[in-house]
Design goal:
This protein is an alpha+beta fold and about 450 residues long. It contains eight helices and 16 strands. About 25% of the residues lie in helices and about 45% in strands. Helix 3 packs antiparallel against helix 4 and helix 4 packs parallel to helix 6.
């Protein structure tokens, strides 16, 4: 039985709605929620809250009522109260549909309160518990909208790669120099697991319709876990000897002359690299990128950069590196797409180990039809490196490399929008100096955002 005080309010609200119902002395909770929803829809959220507060007093775990409260508070601009009600509705929801509704309501309150990043997290929750494909599509669509309006963006990376050559050792650790044979006992392949992780942070500011500036920070970390019973591990060698860390701060400018013009980006970045826990290098780099949609539906990306590396291990290795490249992406029938990539680079330093010209060519093909439920991409790339100067007692170094890979992204197994990705890779580098010949065959497991 509904209390007389709030029944009068229910009755007043009922009479205010054309055609809702005749005056009644008893209403069910479901009827009261229906009334509250109609009050919200006709622009009377305060009256709706009177009904909803009474329902919550009757049952504080009523998820449907709490979700309606979240909507009413949001319409009134009371975003903290809306968020609290939405979260309470999420806690007490007993079905995926109610959890989905609660997550959407909470995300809407956060987005309206300019807490865009947290709103994106709740929309990922909504997509995860969506009761059907239509609901999931709505959550993904809302997430894309919030992401476009969010000045902040965050990207996470993580992957593990079991390998029999985690230290990228040469196939042959012997070197003939001046007729003498030298053997590097430490340059042997070691088995273990490579662990890679990273994060990209970006903040857009000074936003205009056709341009914006941004500040970004990225951090990449690579660590190795060696196989304990690997008999090849030289004495004194530890897993930390193969650690790698790179931190980069970037200031950039995105601009576009008009909606049909290429999208251009200019960046200036400063980075630091640590190897085996020691400071290896400071780097400054100027970059340019241009992306344009072509008439035939394909996309062309041009990019280039010039940088200077201040090496801390050897002043002779400090120098300049520049490069230009292009990527062409072509959609095909059936959802397939093909891409080509080329990159030409040049490194200049006082060291013969550094000064060289490099060329990389790559092609990839992504199938529109899943294989075993996974989006599949086949890739192949070739690498040429020509060094200018001969090393002491050796000829000028020439390298040729080939890399083949297949990756499978299991979108149907995503969790909160992150799906597992498995890649199989075979890579080999041939060189006229055996010390620089390497061979790797591995499997890597990671996660990738699908929206």
């Amino acid at each position: 039985m509904i209390r007389p005080v709030w029944f009068a309010l229910v009755l007043a609200g009922t009479l205010a709605l054309d055609g809702f119902a005749s005056a009644q002395t008893v209403v069910t909770p479901e009827q009261a929620r229906t009334l509250a929803a109609r009050l919200i829809n006709v622009g009377q959220p305060r009256a709706a809250l009177t009904v909803l507060d009474a329902l919550v007093e009757r049952d504080e775990k009523d998820a449907r009522t709490l979700i309606l409260k979240a909507h009413a508070h949001r319409v009134l601009g009371e975003y903290d109260a809306s968020r609290q009600a939405g979260r309470a509705g999420w806690r007490h929801a007993g079905t995926d549909q109610l959890k989905f509704n609660a997550a959407i309501a909470t995300a809407q309150a956060l987005s309206k309160d300019d807490k865009k990043s947290r709103a994106q997290l709740w929309l990922r929750r909504a997509a995860h518990v969506a009761p059907d494909d239509q609901s999931r599509a709505r959550a993904i669509r809302d997430h894309s909208f919030v992401r476009r309006t969010n000045p902040w963006s965050v990207r996470l990376r993580f992957g593990i790669t079991p390998s029999d050559n985690v230290n990228n050792a040469p196939r042959d650790n012997r070197l003939v120099l001046g007729g003498l044979l030298f053997v590097d006992e430490t340059a042997v392949p070691l088995s273990g697991v490579e662990i890679r992780s990273g994060v990209d942070l970006r903040y857009n500011f000074n936003i205009r319709s056709e341009r914006q500036m941004f500040a970004a920070f990225s951090l990449d970390q690579e660590n190795v876990v060696l196989t304990e019973d690997d008999e090849n591990i030289p004495e004194g060698v530890e897993a930390s000897d193969f650690s790698y860390t790179k931190a980069v701060a970037t200031l950039g400018w995105d601009f576009q002359a008009n909606a049909e013009a290429p999208h251009r980006t200019v960046t200036l970045s400063y980075g630091r690299i640590w190897s085996a826990g020691s400071h290896l290098s400071n780097e400054v780099r100027l970059g340019y990128r241009q992306a344009q949609q072509l008439d035939n539906g394909s996309r062309l990306i041009l990019h280039g950069g010039l940088g200077y590396a201040d090496r801390q291990d050897s002043e002779l290795r400090s120098g300049y590196t520049g490069g230009v490249g292009a990527t062409w992406i072509k959609p095909l029938t059936g959802g397939d797409y093909l891409s080509f990539n080329t990159h030409l680079s040049r490194s200049e330093a006082d060291s013969a180990f550094i000064t060289h010209t490099g060329l990389r060519l790559a092609v990839s093909y992504t199938l529109g039809k899943p294989i075993m439920g996974a989006t599949t991409t086949f890739s192949a790339s070739g690498l040429l490196r020509r060094y200018d100067d001969a090393l002491p007692g050796l000829p000028a170094r020439d390298d040729e490399g080939l890399r083949l890979s297949t990756s499978l992204l299991f979108k149907n197994f995503d969790t909160y929008g992150f799906a597992p990705k498995v890649s199989f890779t075979a890579e080999r580098t041939n060189s006229n100096i055996s010390r620089y010949e390497t061979e790797t065959l591995g499997v890597s497991i990671g996660f990738q955002s699908v929206f």
